[in-house]
User: Fold this.
Amino acid sequence: MTISRASAMTLLGAVQRGLSPMELIYVPHEKWPLPRSTLGTRRPLQISILDSSFNPPTLAHLALANAPRPPIGDDAGGHFDAKIYLLSVRNADKSLKPTDASYLQRLEMMLLLAQDSVADAGEHQVAIGIIDEPTFVGKASKLLAFLEQRLGVAPVPLRPQLTFLLGLDTLERVLAPRYYGSSPIDPEAETKMFASLHKFFSAEHDNARVVCARRAATSSTEAQTLKLAERFLADQRIVLIDIGEAEQTYSSTAARDAIGRRDDDAWKNLVSPRVREYIVQERLFAVD
Assistant:
């Protein structure tokens, strides 16, 4: 499993310049997202999307990526047919800082995370992608269009079912009215948010789902997020899961902060050995 830096930079540039809405930097095989054998396919492909800044990816990302598909309604759950780790080159809240990992470095760490995922889960259906879209509503539409074009005339009976894997902090951005209004003081922002999310979650439209990892302790902001999510939790369009007592306390911010203060014992326990070696090798986040 490797990424060509030259190829990755070319594709990254195309997305950043608006020449392409989305690109796959790495795919495990040419049929992806179809399984290697498509015999007996009679249902929508179940595709998980781990969408994050990966700055750096932690063991919490790995636990979330490896979480099984939860049982929902008549769906008994199980494995996802395909997975994609997705990096947006346009974030609604964040811009690159001098001490941050570059997009190329994040893509390379995403591939290391995919290698860890394969080792832990015994499967190899993980692709690495980049997209030029800051909102999850927009990502769902672009992903579906991209996947349908990629599948082409393949014998897939229904459009893919997308499940976004998120942390509670990211769910807060999905359910923040400020991202949906025409201005920060738009009085109709919450109404517009629910209209957009209806399209995002509705079976007649994007038919997306969200699987969100619980945290060890919930802040007041996160409690407000869960309050806004009540109708979607009731409909099982948003499902909360546990990823592990230790993992639910991990974050990329904590890893970066520990690296910055040279607390090796702290940060090295938050990431996988492959990612740990890469951070040291690339001298990321002020590592000497």
Summary: Residues 5-25+42-286 form a domain with the Rossmann fold fold (CATH 3.40.50.620). The longest strand covers residues 82-88.
